[in-house]
Amino acid sequence: MAICYITDRNLRGFFRNTGDGLLFMEKDTKKLFKSLTHLSSIGLVMAVCIAIGGLLGLYLDRKFGTAPILLIVCFLLGVAAAFKNLYTLYKKMQENEK
User: Fold this and answer.
1) How far is CA 69 from CA 46, 59, 78, 79, 81, in A?
2) How far is residue 90's CA from residue 53's CA, in Å, rounded to a whole number?
3) How many Å apart are CA 6 and CA 9, to the nearest integer?
4) Residues 29 and 35 sit within 8 Å (Cβ to Cβ)
5) Looking at per-residue confidence, does 69 or 21 come out higher?
6) Ramachandran assignment for 69, one of left (phi > 0), alpha (psi -120 to 50 degrees), beta (any other)
7) Cβ neighbours of 53 (radius 10 Å)
8) pLDDT category, 1, cuts 50, 70, 90?
9) What are the backbone dihedrals phi and psi of residue 71, each rounded to the nearest 5 degrees, phi first?
10) Cis bond leading into 68, ω under 30°?
């Protein structure tokens, strides 16, 4: 259980008051916030994977003089890694719903 002090009246619906001034997050609310956290990270994870793949390919092309072959290969590997991470996040969200 997460212990939080809430002063905003709009957020009090997400928490249960114990009577001593402490508020505890309900189990369903905790699952909701956990799912929202996973969803909000999807775009960042995909962008970072693709950017790392592209930058690595660009670096390798400049180093070995193979432009644009390694850029394309590493970019596609970055896209594949992004979708693999998307699938992993999907599986985590499915486990959280149970």
Assistant:
1) 22, 12, 14, 16, 18
2) 22
3) 8
4) no
5) 69
6) alpha
7) 22
8) very low
9) -60, -45
10) yes
Which whole number is the average pLDDT over 14-30? 64
Digit-coded pLDDT (tens) for 35-89: 788 788 888 999 999 999 999 999 999 999 998 999 999 999 999 999 999 999 8
In the sheet that 3-4 helps form, which strands lie side by side, from edge to edge? 3-4, 23-25, 15-17
The SS3 of residue 25 is strand
**What residues does each domain of the chain span?**
3-97
Helix, coil or strand: residue 21? coil
> Residue 4 above 80 pLDDT?
no
Length of the chain measured in residues: 98
